[in-house]
Amino acid sequence: DNIELFRQNYQYQQAIQWYTNESFLYRLLNRALHIIDFEILYSIRFFLIDLYFEIENKYKNIKNQEYLIVYHAQIMSIEEIEKLKKYIGCLISINHFLSTSRNKNLLLSIFQQNFSTYINVLFEIHVNLSNETIILTDISSFNSIYQEKEILFNINSLLKIDSIEYDSINNLWNIKLIANHDETKHINEYLKWIQNETDYHSTMIYFGHLLWNNLGQMTQAKNYFHILLKSLSNNHIDIPKIYIELGHINNEIGEYNSALHNYQCALNIYQKQIPKDNICIISSLNYIGIIYKHMSKIDRAIDYYRQSLDIYETTCSQDQNHIHRSNIMINMGLAYRDKKDFNTALNYLTQAYNIRCDILPNDDLLIANLLIDIGNIYHDKHDLNQVLNYYQQALSIQELVYPNDHLNKAKLIRNIGIIYSDKQDWQNALNYLNRTLKMYQCLLSMNINHPDIAICYGDIGNIYEKMNNLDLALNYYDKQFQIEEQCLSFNHSNLIIHFDKIINILKKKNQIEKAINLCQEKLLILKNIFGIEYEYHTRIVRILILIATLYEDKNPRESHQYYQHILEIFEHNKNEDIFQICLSTMINFYWKCRMFDRALICQMKLLNLRRSILSSNHHDIAYSLRDLARLYRVMNKSNEALQYFNQSLRILQTKYGSEHIDVKNIQKEIIDLKDIIKSLSANADDDYNNRRSSNAHKEFFIMPQNDSNSQSSTSIYGIKNKSSTSDSTSVVCVII
Fold first, then answer.
1. What is the pLDDT of residues 49-107, one digit of tens each?
2. Quick check: is 665 in a domain?
3. Which regions does the record annotate with the repeat TPR (predicted)?
4. What is the largest CA-CA distance in the chain?
């Protein structure tokens, strides 16, 4: 009877009334939302959307209050309670319409004594009604039990778990939730733009949009939109909107080729159906630009952003869609940042900033986020004072909007501390980084072994190391490493990097024996963990490298044996990253021992390895070529040195331009080397002519100069002629 009555009489403005009645809709809808029953949700999609919008429309009826506390009664298992405890301080999203009451006593009276595995739970929800991200309405007038004073929350409300405590008096668990303060309200222009973005959706489109955007059901939403494409006629008005939604889903899950295809399909249809200055065309061009940027095709991205901006700026009123125009400018600026054209990037971001300042409140988080973007570009330009300026402006907004301990604010405060560190303002750096540590400890109080807390310890340790306070540096590095051993996987790179830092501090403190013992202890522990093939594990190899470096000054022979053992390991199981570290360390060792021929072998291996895994113009290859040139130079092989210097220079000039410091340094080294070659060539010719005139009947052999300090294991002798003048500084003449 209820179903037939609903079929005959339902109107969209009666959604709340039908939802609150003792009818099939309440149970059907909430069950479908709880288990994400796609078929049921699709069959009642019109009612779902009607209810969603009616709650939004009636929200104004309750906004005359400032603060609201409501309650929700439920039974839960103890396992569910324990699971929720892990998320204290975190946000939860309510994926259904949540019914609550202002009358706490009424809800307490309905609880019954439970002796089963389920327990009574009372949710206490605190709502600041100035926060427009929480949409709710008073539905007491629709409820037969008026004393309940029922408040209905819209789907997808974000709430923070503030506390979970047992109430022994009422024999129940009390869970305190606070309405999310992450977003502030936007002024009318921005809200109007958001409304325009969603108003063009039909009910059919909006259902799919809710599936992926509000409920996170990407696969179901994608399938739903594909069904619509097959079932609707080709000229249906919603076809391009379906392609746009599919593009959004593809973008969210990283399917960029599919996203590009869908956005392009939408654009092609729009260009045939609507005027070129329509916001749908502008948006489609912008979406395509975003995808090209994700695909690292920056020039193509800029081209589409430019098309979007050109249409907007030449045909659209300056007062329309201001926020949309600023978004495109931000996208353009960030694309130019990727191209390292920082001045152009700043120009676009500054224009976007001015637009947002015109239409948004001064304390809006969108302005704060843009200030951070501008600060990031100044960081790329190495202008630390400007970085601090913009970061501090952003922080002043976050201080007004965010609660004391908020993740985004903690991240920004950490970044400010890092900038002070770069400026060598150690005290300010410590102040900000210690504040960050306290915020993370508060935010993650239920998980003290969190990697973000470990990072904070490492940041502070790094400052103390730069201040040469090695004891405190070691203390903080130890804390960092202990946490990371608890929360990271055994093969995580941070465990390698940060153990290196501890050993390096001990080395600086000249506690070599302690460092070696610590390495040996760690080897023994890891051997028990990794089993019979422990030597082939990355962490093991890295510790062996550390031991080799520790023995370099104390016992070079022992160090050399460790290096040889490491190379044997790499013959069986080569990890490119660690192999590069090993070769680089060995090169430094052989340089220090003046064993240049061995250093040359390792340098060649390093170059060949990098060429096999990196692009031909990668900067690491350029630096390997430069180091190889320097090695040949010290071995007095000037022609080879010049050849590799030139190869390195070509890569770095292409990558960084002619003004980069490394480019200028190599150019100077080339000039100096050419001067040496020219000078040696002239001297060699004079010597040769003198010998020809006085000893024309004699031949001479040229051999490498024997360096008494060299520990090279090989000597190369050969006959040279006059053309080998570049090596004349390393030879002596043996007269026969």
1. 777 777 766 665 555 566 788 898 888 888 788 778 777 776 676 767 778 888 888 88
2. yes
3. 240-273, 282-315, 368-401, 454-487, 622-655
4. 127
Q: Distance between CA 369 and CA 187 in Å, rounded?
A: 17
d(CA 22, CA 138): 18
- What is the number of other CB atoms lying within 10 angstroms of the CB of residue 349? 25
**Over 177-244, what HEC string results?**
EEECCCCCCCCHHHHHHHHHHHHCCCHHHHHHHHHHHHCCCHHHHHHHHHHHHHHCCCCCCCHHHHHH
**Domain C-terminal end among 150, 181, 212:** 181
On whether both 27 and 39 belong to a single domain, the answer is: yes
> Is 101 found in the same domain as 82?
yes
According to DSSP, the residues that pair with 167 across neighbouring strands are: 172
Examine the fold and report which residue of 14, 36, 60 is the final residue of a domain before the chain moves on.
60
> How many other C-beta atoms lie within 10 A of the C-beta of residue 525?
11
44 and 101: one domain? no
Element (H, E) at 47: helix 45-58
Q: What residue spans of 425-508 are helical by DSSP H?
A: 426-443, 451-466, 470-487, 493-508
Query: Residues 219, 62: contact at Cβ < 8 Å?
Result: no
Q: Are 678 and 712 within 8 A, CB to CB? A: no
pLDDT tens for 202-261 read 667 877 887 787 667 788 888 888 888 887 888 888 899 999 999 999 999 999 999 999
Give the C-alpha separation, 548 to 417, whole Å: 35
136 plus 165 within the same structural domain: yes
- Give CA–CA dist 420/410, Å, rounded: 15
Same domain, 80 and 142: yes
Instruction: Measure the CA–CA gap between 23 and 2, rounded to whole angstroms.
Output: 7
Residue 505 located in a structural domain: no
389/718 Cα distance (integer angstroms) = 65
In CATH, what number is assigned to the domain containing residue 160? 3.90.176.10
Range of the structural domain that residue 633 is part of = 614-677
C-alpha 323/C-alpha 423 separation (Å) is: 36
Backbone φ/ψ region at 360: left (φ over 0), alpha (ψ -120 to 50), beta: beta
Which pairs with CB-CB distance under 8 Å and at least 24 residues apart come from 702-708?
Answer: 702/727, 702/731, 702/732, 702/733, 703/731, 703/732, 703/734, 704/730, 704/731, 705/636, 705/729, 705/730, 705/731, 705/732, 707/594
> Measuring CA to CA, which residue among 424, 346, 426 is closest to residue 379?
346
Q: Is 377 inside any structural domain? A: no
Q: Is residue 569 part of a domain?
A: no
Shared-domain flag, residues 46 and 69: no
For the beta sheet containing 67-77, the strands, ordered from the edge strand earlier in sequence to the opposite edge, are 91-94, 157-167, 172-179, 118-128, 67-77, 98-101, 150-153, 136-138
HEC-encoded secondary structure of 274-300: CCCCCHHHHHHHHHHHHHHHHCCCHHH
pTM above 0.70, yes or no: no
**What total number of domains does the chain contain?**
3
Let me know: does 196 contact 321? Beta carbons within 8 Å.
yes
| Residue 53 and residue 114 in one domain | no
Q: Name residues whose C-beta falls within 8 Å of residue 531's C-beta, 6 or more positions apart in sequence.
A: none
